[in-house]
Amino acid sequence: MENINAKYVSQKISKTRWRLVSHASLQQPDVFATGSWDNEVNKISFWSIGNHGSSDMDDGFEGDPQLLCEHKHDGDVLDLQFLDQDRIVTTSSTGAVTIFRLHQNSQTISVAQRWPRAHGFPCENAPCTGVVCSSPEIVTVGEDGKIIVFRADQEGVIRVIENADSSTIHAVTYLRTTEILTVNSIGQLKLWDFRQQSNAPSQILSLSGDRVPLHCVDRHPNQQHIVATGGQDGMLCVWDVRQGSTPFSLMEAHSAEMWEVRFHPTNPDHLFTCSEDGSLLHWETSTSSDMPSFLQGGRNNSMISRSAMAPAGGNQSLINAWLSGDSSKGRLETTHMLPSQTLSVNSLDVLGQCLVCGTDGEAIFVNRQVPV
Amino acid sequence: MEEVDVEPTVTVNVHTSPPRCFHSLLSSPSPLIPLCYAICSFISDAKGSGCSFIHEVRKDEDIYSPILRKLFNESHHIFVGLQTIREDLPSKNKKNQFVSISKNYRSVIRACMEELQQVAVSTKEAAVATQYGNQVSILLAIELIWNLCEVLFIDAAPAGSLLLHLLDWVRLHKADVDEKAREVLQSESPAEHRDYWDVPGGNQTLTEFDVKWRHWHDEVNRCLQDNSFASNRHLEIICKILAGDEDTLLEHKELLSTWYHFLVTRLLFSHPTVKPTELHYYAQSCLTMFLDSRSVPEPLDNILLAAFEFDIHQVIKDCSIALNNWWFVAHLTDLLDHCKLLQSHNLHFGSNLREFLLLEYASGLFTHHSLWQLAVDYFDHCPEFGHVYLELQIERVPLDTERKALKVLRICDQRQMSEQVRSICKIMAMRALRNNRLGSALSWSIRAKDAAFATLISERFLQDYCTRGTFSDLDLIDNLGPAMLLSDRLTFLGKYREFHKLYGEKRFGEAAKLLLSLMTAKIAPRSFWMTLLTDALPLLEQKEVIFSADQTHELMFCLEELTSCLNASALGSPKTSQDEDIELTKVELLRLSLARNLAMAIIKEGTVEA
């Protein structure tokens, strides 16, 4: 916890994302974007932590995020994602979807494209709650239960799935290039295949038991069938979408809503979650033996696991560390990453060894030496 | 609509003298909109025109300033940390902790001040520079007072080290304001003379030091008598100062720009072993001597004087009047209360002073569109009235998005405010219903465990079915899960859908049983029975017998019950003859089908299998 710096920024942060670094270079990320919420005038801002090429920066103060530029944003920033090096997509509580462009040389931001009422109800605004993009395609979801597909340089919408859900869709993620996964406020995961013309999901998964709203979802970077979700009760669920309709493991993570769950993009044995209760947890699994599959058959540390039947046959080496199985050789460690008593941590992002998160206490925390 | 900033009447002299300006705007930041509006109407707007524009009333400018917001957030963090200090620590440790917390607060103030200062000097607009300059001055004053309170009350330095702390205090604030004079003052600054003797607190007792000091003082006086410095005027002045000669000190008033600097200097040279209880004599006399040119002391002077007199309540009272924001007094009082320095006398309006100030501050915060979340923690730590205040305020937070509603609900949940949970969920559910988001509405009523609303939603579904013939939102109804049990109507909806699924899968026997149980177990509302019986028609008309004889009897019984009810009610309600015809036809068809089915069932059950 010594490596974490807090910076007070006079705006409640709803989302923060690292700017993508090219995979070729092993650079640590140096720029991140934040979006604010609940302000009279909301903003998106770009910050730099000055990590240009120099490794082992041990002086805490030099790493203080510096504001590069900011731009007014209409409505709360509910979700934010980098489209490419220079452009970000944001979704707003007014239902608008906007693409902003960052001009590197002049350090200014301009609006590149805007769809002002992408999501909406007939008589009022519907907040657009989630976005995911894989340039040039952008997929957004909202409180109106619609899924909309855009293309970055085209004016209109490409496809709308009306009434995709009778409740609010909280988050969306890509499963494959033509498949997405959404989570909603009655505790269901729905798979949508864009190759099909019908407006019905190709699969619905849900928890047995109470219909707890799910707020966030993230897919394992390497294994496309493994998905982690977090919901209102703070439980972390790991699902295998190929098998069955119930999660493979459930873990008690937080005492309040979990707002974001992220697998580490290059080291997926590490998972990060943040919550309304003000904590940010770093989950680390490992297999301690040569057997790649590890299992928590019963209770282990802070984890309550409810295992379905073991994955039928299949190559042992493909069985993921996050799923339950039949031997308890592995372990799961959880560490708190923030000093206690912060207000809700709304968002986090992790890339390389750097972690950034934003809170309702109007603070941004950056940790540049995450042990992964 | 023109926005008018309420311009406070301010007299300010930035950077030339210690902070003497205070906002004399007396409106308190509590939400007294009519009072504020009345005050606004007396203050002319910036352009001085007489037109009646719509004024945007802003009670408390400070909380809207982006740099000052950091002050509120950081101090909130420190405040919450202070509340959780364990009670069972030994008092010496606690005192150190309180001192360090006090220093934390002060460092937050200084950080804010520096940032404001940077903006004030770098901006090109004069108005902004003035405004920020004002804020810097106020923060300077606040820090001055806080530092003095820390020295006198929290740290409670005894005689001997008291003077050292006061020296530090003066030097710190002197350096802030008067940098040019500092070089001149260095030569005459007390620091130089520190080297002349060991300060107490090291390895000497107070009396030892006192004796040594008296020796030295006598020596200085002797030098003066001897006129040993008569040749050099400057040296003589220095010698007089060292001897503590008041007149000489007063002659150099411009260098000691404040009376408290004069006080500390005088004490340094004449009474270094001053006791805390004696301070106020010297303070009063120094103030009088220093201010002979001016008629009346400034509010800041009065506050400092009250502090020297150890009259904590007077300090707090004067600060509350002089400043337009409760931030300072609330946090300082809370800290002093933790140090057990405030006598707890109850105020007329219930609760003690600390709680009153915290409530006022938090209420002001709650009016801010963003900082209301901080206020919740302040209310939490007001044991007597905090809960009530929170209950009243939390319902007024505007809920634009579901995410905000969820956060407010979490706050209510954690404090067992179930009334507020129900009402917020109801608002969100109604909104969802209005926009035809039945799934959302259901999820809100599940959250609130609101059976009545769940019934309402089920009614909507059933109405939809009756008008359209199909269910909408199948993804919701098919996956109700345990939520089905929330209300009877919802259970019926789930079961009815199940019936349709069974029928679709051609599992007629189970479907028939389910349908019957819906009526006999009284799960179905009476109004829906006709529809259910009509649904039974295709089952009755199948080639093979699905309903057994007993079941058919039960169906007939239900039909009779229904028709007798309808007849009874039909007398009252006017129906068109067309409707009546349709009703009659339906009933007749049903009776016919039931009779035929009964016949076939009896035959089938009576037949002995060959």
UniProtKB/TrEMBL annotation, chain A:
UniProt-annotated location(s): Nucleus
UniProt main location, coarse: nucleus
PROSITE patterns xref list: WD_REPEATS_1, WD_REPEATS_2
SMART domains: WD40 (SM00320)
Keywords from the UniProt entry: Nucleus, Repeat, WD repeat
Entry GO CC: nuclear pore outer ring
SUPFAM superfamilies registered for this protein in UniProt: WD40 repeat-like
The keyword Repeat appears for this protein: yes
WD repeats: 207-249, 251-293
Record protein name field: Nucleoporin 43
TrEMBL record, chain B:
The organism's taxonomic lineage, starting at the top: Eukaryota, Metazoa, Chordata, Craniata, Vertebrata
Primary localisation category: nucleus
Organism: Gasterosteus aculeatus aculeatus (three-spined stickleback)
Keywords: Membrane, mRNA transport, Nuclear pore complex, Nucleus, Protein transport, Translocation, Transport
Protein name according to UniProt: Nuclear pore complex protein Nup85
Stated family: Belongs to the nucleoporin Nup85 family.
Keyword Isomerase: no
Domain of life per record: Eukaryota
Subunit structure: Component of the nuclear pore complex (NPC).
Cell location: Nucleus, Nuclear pore complex
